[in-house]
Amino acid sequence: MDISSIGYATLAAILAPAFLLLVVYIRGILYRRKAAVANLDHVRLEGRTVIITGASAEDIRNTTGNNDVHVKQVDTSSLASVRKFANEILAEEKRIDVLILNAGIAGLDKRILTDDGLEYTMATNHFGHFLLTNILLGLVKKSRPSRIVVVASTALNSTLNVDNLNFEKGGFQSFRSYVQSKSCNVLFTRRLADLTRDEGVVVNCLDPGFVHTEIFDKSGGFMVGTVVRLGVPFMGRTEVQGAQTVVYVAASEEGGTTTGKYFEECKVSSTADALLNNEELAKQVWEASERLVGLQPDEKHY
């Protein structure tokens, strides 16, 4: 046996992962450098009420010095928790100027149902926010001009099966559940924008980018739980960078005059057009969501 060939093989086995890691690291640097900046230092939101799910209140206080930040507990995977939270908001707040639907998970390694019989990722990312928005919509309308901002993703599928939103007919995979939930976010945006078009409310969705947050810590499956979680420290953007498009849609002039659109890098993008242009599918997902969350007559404000 050629000893040198063994040496070359060993060297290649060592260098290949190192080279791959270097490529990932360099791509991460380039990805972070091209991150858009909202440039909204001139915009002031004093006197406005902004509700955002999945936010870190302590970080907001520490970085802005604004102590007028209040924390309420809500589990968007639980319809009972969402209803409790929404009713507390209605009892305590006089207006909602901006509602940002931000909380989410990246997918679990197996199909788990909530106490409401909903697939966990779909419940957390879509159904909970669907219910929350419907209950608060009356107050949002009264606060016009107002905005609803839906944090979606670029991981989308334009051919989802409305009769299998909870994967009761099979086909569950960790990443697939995440993609389906984010696709529903976009379709929800389209339908809600249509329903509120003449109500003084604008509804838009967005992709925050590939951001290094704790969302991946609770994820499972090979794609999300392993590949993505290992790659995000090297390729992911910072939380501040990931917030830029969210802030832009929530506070910019364009974000207040545009409705039913999808934003990337602080500008309107065509990435989600296949979903946004599918009016019929948006209606079907809306109707199925109403049924699955058990939306009551007094929770409808459209």
Protein described:
With 302 residues, the chain is α/β, with parallel strands linked by helices. A six-stranded mixed sheet has the order 1-2-3-4-5-6, sandwiched between helices. It starts with a helix and ends in a 9-residue tail after the last helix. The protein is globular. It is built from ten helices and six strands; from the N terminus they run αβααβαβαβαααββαα. Strand 2, helix 4 and strand 3 (146-151) form a beta-alpha-beta unit. Helix 3 (79-92) runs parallel beside helix 4 (120-142), helix 4 packs across helix 10 (279-293) and helix 5 packs across helix 10 (279-293). The chain has helices at 3-33, 57-64, 79-92, 120-142, 174-195, 221-235, 239-251, 253-257, 273-276, 279-293; strands at 50-52, 98-101, 146-151, 201-207, 262-264, 267-268.
In short, what is this structure?
With 302 residues, the chain is α/β, with parallel strands linked by helices. Helices cover 50% and strands 8% of the residues.
Estimate the strand proportion.
5-15%
Provide the structure class: alpha/beta
Average pLDDT, all residues: 89
Low-confidence stretches: none
Please compute the radius of gyration using only Cα atoms: 21 Å
Q: Please report the distance between the alpha carbons of the first and last residues.
A: 77 Å
Q: Which sheet architecture does the biggest sheet show?
A: 6 strands, mixed
